[in-house]
Amino acid sequence: MPLFDYSLLLTGKYHDMLVAGLLLSLQLLAASLVLALPIALVVALLRLSPLAPLRWLGFAYVEVIRNIPLLAHMLFWYFGAPELLPEGFKQWLYAGHIEAYSAIIALALYTAAFMAEDIRSGIRAIPTVQFEAGRALGFGFLATMRRVVLPQALRVTVPPLISQTLSLWKNTSIATVIGVAELMYQAGQVESATFRSFESFAFASAAYLTVSLAITGLATWYHHRFPVRTI
Amino acid sequence: MVRASMSLGERTTMRHTLLAAALAASALLTGIAAHADQLADIKKKGELVVGVLGTDEPATFVDPKTRQIVGYEVDLVNAIAKKIGVKPVLKQIAVAARIPELQQGHVDLVAAGLTHNKEREAQIDFSLTTFVTGQKAIVKKDSGIAEVPQLAGKKVLTIRGGTQEPNIRKAVPTAEIVTFDTSQQAFQALQQGKGVGYVDDEAALLRSYAKLGPQKAQYVVLKQNLSTEALAIGIKKGESGLKAVVDDTLRELEKSGEAQKIFVKWYGPATASGFQTRDFKLESDKID
User: Quick check: is A143 in a domain?
Assistant: First the structure.
């Protein structure tokens, strides 16, 4: 029975490959999260907008995106969407890291749909009188949101958003299908080069778990440091 | 209602039962490990489970009309199953899963464009060589690339988990390699210009090239072979009984001329692969 070979994971070429994969996965997480949050906020506001067409737009975004598997999004943003770009720009893009860009767009749009729903629930958790009071003071819809409702709502929203961030972190692994050299991709490469399946996927699992636990830890800390004030 | 507490006597009995169970379990495990004759198992269950790609035309692919997996390797496997006297069951597996599936016993054989090389000999056994192909690169004409070394620093697309990637890495260490789950995806990426070159076994590559139709003029297949691959059927390590049957079947196919017929049917001049001659025979399980 072959033993668990730690040396493979701790030093050498395969260690470097796995670490490079982990770093790229973290970059995917960071870039998609930074993009997803503002999109989610805008979509949530669209869904609560006083104007019906804007509400429909928000509704359509959320339903279309979250009801299609992420895998399909990935393949669409890699194989489909970039083909519609103008020729010159397309070639410039393809010469660079098109895989990673496509993955980030797919992950950001996908995660934003879920986060938008969480933010919307957060906003709805703030008593309507708060909103009405803001309007009574003469603020418009956006100003009321920005100055009165959102500062309270976002605190309520943090725990579910953290949960979405965990999903996002694990979803970065799907980018492997479009050839992004993230952690699962590298684990697969190491596996086929060394036939050490258990070691390479043990590394990947441990890495996913560690980062996930760190995100959860952050959430707990935030919750203690900035407890929900109203309601 | 769950029992809240146990008497001392009960606890001792329970410990004994646990110990006995553990012993029984370990005995069972050893029993499985010591059990070696896969051929007898295959006969007993009446089916030969074979891992195939199903995406590798014309070796194993889904016939669009019948929705059945057909191809060169399928014909060989059918002959082997017939020889054993059981029903062949094809199971589609991914390129990277070929060796693990075999080692874990999920499939009895792997007929999936599997390259026979020295590194893999430590993991599994191989049948007689069933196909010999060079691995080549195809590029777009307007890239101006005419020789393999010119791929240096360029993005090259291929399939993951096979020998294509290590081979192109060896031939052009500085190439930036992007891999996909299937050859179709990798080839699609080439067509869209997401890489400069695409690497695959010659037989498969020519097939993809033929499918381009009139667009063929925009592509060039580079002449130089990145490597020569001997493909074979994978067998679990140490299953000598099974290997003997597989090899015997292949030898008989060669002797009766059936092997030649199967080759011509899938790779011959009338097919998209268009091989004029067959430069190998099903006769040896040795590689250089």
Answer: yes
Residue A42 structural domain: 6-222
A177-201 pLDDT per residue, tens: 998 999 999 998 888 888 788 888 9
pLDDT in tens, B228-251: 889 999 999 999 999 999 999 999
Q: Does B194 touch chain A (CB under 8 A)?
A: yes
CA distance A146 to A67: 30
Which of A195, A198, A199 to probe the B interface (max B CBs under 10 A)?
A195
| Sign of the dihedral through C-alpha B149, B286, B93, B28 | negative
Verdict on whether the full-model pTM lies above 0.80 = no
Q: Is 0.95 exceeded by the ipTM?
A: no
Do A22 and A183 form a contact (C-beta atoms < 8 A)? yes
B165: which chain A residues are within 8 Å (Cβ-Cβ)?
189, 192
Q: How far apart are the first and last CA of chain A?
A: 60
Give the right CATH number for B134-228 from 3.40.109.10, 3.40.50.720, 3.40.190.10, 3.40.50.1260. Answer: 3.40.190.10
- A122 falls within a domain: yes
